[in-house]
Amino acid sequence: xxxxxxxxxxxxxxxxxxxxxxxxxxxxxxxxxxxxxxxxxxxxxxxxxxxxxxxxxxxxxxxxxxxxxxxxxxxxxxxxxxxxxxxxxxxxxxxxxxxxxxxxxxxxxxxxxxxxxxxxxxxxxxxxxxxxxxxxxxxxxxxxxxxxxxxxxxxxxxxxxxxxxxxxxxxxxxxxxxxxxxxxxxxxxx
Length: 190
Hints:
The chain is of the alpha/beta class and 190 residues long. The protein folds into 2 domains: 8-69; 85-174, Arc Repressor Mutant, subunit A (Orthogonal Bundle). It is 32% helix and 12% strand. A hairpin with an 8-residue loop joins strand 1 and strand 2 (21-26). It is globular and about 50 Å long. This is Methylated-DNA--protein-cysteine methyltransferase.
């Protein structure tokens, strides 16, 4: 279902290995955010902003992301426009958003079980794979924290591209779920 309010589209600078985040926001909240320039499958139609300071939504989103990346904010506390999600995807993403906080991680199977969308037996197998696929289709990067969902035996996946796993590691290090390494160039996660 497309958003009912006018949409603005803009980019936000980040220190992530993946670079800038592209964002779309409606009057209802953040509608879409992606790490990669070519990740435009769900990019909603809207007005492209060259100057984000002129739009209150864009300015607030940019400020909150900047504070989060600098380690000054633990939550983005931005409204979400869920209209690009539906059904099982929305149920799992809303469960993730509401139950896995800053500095926490959950496995794909644990999230499947927590959301109650699958029976207990399926949550340990096929449902965990379905949740993994849903994390790969999350329409709003970081605000819906798919980076906090990990495999039972390690980090798991995080989209495509050579910077996908380094981006996930960076975010989990920022939030304190992973210890900084000698090459860590982000803020002190403590």
